[in-house]
Amino acid sequence: MPSSDTPFSASPSLILASGSVYRRELLQRLQIPFSCISPDIDETPAAGELPQETALRLAQQKAQHIASQHPGSIVIGSDQVATLDQLQIGKPGNHQRALEQLMLMRGREVIFHTALCVIDSRTGANHPVQSVNVQTRVIMRNLPEHELDAYLRIEQPYDCAGSAKNEGLGIALLESVTSDDPTALTGLPMIALTGMLRRCGIPFFQTATPSL
Hints:
Blueprint: E1 14-16, H1 21-28, E2 35-36, H2 51-69, E3 74-84, E4 87-89, H3 95-105, E5 109-120, E6 129-140, H4 145-155, E7 174-179, H5 190-199
Parallel strand pairs: 1-2, 1-3
Antiparallel strand pairs: 3-4, 3-5, 5-6, 6-7
Helix pairs in contact: 3-4
């Protein structure tokens, strides 16, 4: 029986099931080839679903949707749900709702659930499905409304849960961040992901053999 980290014999294609430029930029850090395909799924939370359950379900559905279309590949799915007092804070979609979100969150703790799912659709894969939820606790600065409004007009983060881009100017809205994975807040937990990819046999740190 091979160990869990034994390289798989087949060389798979790696697919990021996302249209997010931020997730793509994070995955590019690993310097391994991959492609991006945006899954078309309904991201509406189910009735009575806990925030972490929503994030995990959607991450799995994204990965499964793309894996079913690309057998023999390794597919990465991820989803993020922001919560305030256990209530889900979705993507605002427009300026007014974003401003309402930021005003509601100012000076308070917001918890981000960033779920990750890796599906290895190769026949005989040792770890066909892996998933995890990484939690990040964020304390928002207690800023006046005019500053929040000005931030939104500059960065327009209307497609971001929580109405702020921490990888951009939105970092100025944050008082503190607590997480086991500093990349989770951006939307793709890279520490967890690299562990999952290792279990799939994806190699890291490959260099060309020097010529004699």
